Amino acid sequence: MFALAVVAIYSLILLVSIAIAKRFEQTPHVFQASEKFYDLKGKTAIITGGNSGIGYYVAEQLAARGARTILACRDLHKAEAAKRRIIEATSNSNITIKRLNLASLRTVREFCAEVLASETHIDFLINNAGAIHLGDHETEDGLQITWQINYFAPFLLTNLLLDKLKYCNGKIVNVTGQFCANRVYLDDINTYSPIIWREKLSHVLVADMVAYFNAKSALYESSFEFARRLGTTGGSVCVFTVNPSSSNFYRRVYLGPIAILYFWLHVLFPKPEVEARKLVELILSDASITKYGHDDEYLANELWRRSCQLVNLQT
Ligand SMILES: NC(=O)c1ccc[n+]([C@@H]2O[C@H](COP(=O)([O-])OP(=O)(O)OC[C@H]3O[C@@H](n4cnc5c(N)ncnc54)[C@H](OP(=O)(O)O)[C@@H]3O)[C@@H](O)[C@H]2O)c1
């Protein structure tokens, strides 16, 4: 009875918070719904985490329009199943799976070397894969795991594939998240538990979330710098960020209040297929973005410089 009351009160608080969050939700940066059907035959798309959730539906929708679709996934069994589903749903057999584990920069480099050898051009790079609740672990690359998966690895991947994107004026989409467009504090880069949180709220779930939001905010901020740098060197490569609100993450947390939070988010916010449709319409539109982030050139440059250093990238 007591447990039921706690869950009810918790859910009520959650509903009110969600209603407030929705009230102040940012409008998408650019979104032009389009009725036009785009034929993507001859175009190549890479979708990280294309085996599930938003990534899966983006892959399916691009494949349905005829694109050569590369699913970049850490688990080849799941990728193979997704590939079969996509072929069945779209009758496009030009679907390839490649192994990419963002928790290992070695596999990121191997993936990029393979793609650079096999593809003449990349039209769309969708940095969709992301993860939360990974705890305070260091990867084999010496980086904080949440930061590596959500920011450093996509940063390295995008840099290594830039030439192929420039070749065809491709588009890069960085999938961040609602509440993930915050200011990046340089002292927080690659940290699990920034001081302010460590002193006040040391709960591991909170630390997990802070690391995730900070890493996603860095991905958001770096999009600004990618766009700025490509503006001078990259022809008309476009960089977008999209901020989905719904998430499949509830599937990965089984206990405690956080599971209720994710469950309600899943129920109340748009489903992954809807988020995917918005993303696909965005990349198919003629939209281009000229302004991102917080317009702090020093911060953007410094984030870029430190990121290059941490992933061992010469630019
Ligand atoms: N408010 C928010 O912050 C918010 C809300 C919704 C979505 N999003 C973002 O939207 C994106 C898609 O989320 P979703 O809801 O569709 O979740 P999902 O279904 O859990 O998809 C996440 C994908 O990322 C992959 N992935 C996780 N760790 C990886 C790694 N180390 N290497 C390679 N791939 C890895 C997963 O692979 P496995 O299947 O093998 O685990 C899965 O394919 C994520 O970037 C997420 O952060 C953010």
Per-chain topology:
Blueprint: H1 2-23, E1 44-48, H2 53-64, E2 68-73, H3 76-90, E3 95-99, H4 105-118, E4 124-127, H5 145-167, E5 171-175, H6 195-200, H7 204-233, E6 238-242, H8 256-268, H9 272-284, H10 297-311
Parallel strand pairs: 1-2, 1-4, 2-3, 4-5, 5-6
Helix pairs in contact: 1-8, 2-3, 2-9, 4-5, 5-7, 5-10, 7-10
The structure holds NADP nicotinamide-adenine-dinucleotide phosphate.
Question: What does this entry look like structurally?
Answer:
The protein contains ten helices and six strands. The chain has 315 residues and is of the alpha/beta class. The protein has one domain (2-311): 3-Layer(aba) Sandwich (Rossmann fold). Strands 3-2-1-4-5-6 form a six-stranded parallel sheet, sandwiched between helices. Helix 2 (53-64) links the parallel strand 1 and strand 2. The longest helix is centred in the last third of the chain and has 30 residues, at 204-233. The radius of gyration is 19 Å and the shape is globular. The structure holds NADP nicotinamide-adenine-dinucleotide phosphate (NAP). NADP nicotinamide-adenine-dinucleotide phosphate binds next to helix 2.
Which structural category do the helix and sheet elements fall into? alpha/beta
The CATH architecture designation is 3-Layer(aba) Sandwich
Write down the CATH class.
Answer: Alpha Beta
Number of helices: 10
The CA-CA distance between the termini, in Å, is 61 Å
Order of helices and strands: HEHEHEHEHEHHEHHH
CATH topology: Rossmann fold
Distinct small-molecule ligands in the complex: NADP nicotinamide-adenine-dinucleotide phosphate
Rg, Å, rounded: 19 Å
Helical content stands at: 40-55%
Q: Tell me, what's the shape?
A: globular
Task: Describe the strand arrangement of the main beta sheet, using strand numbers.
Answer: 3-2-1-4-5-6
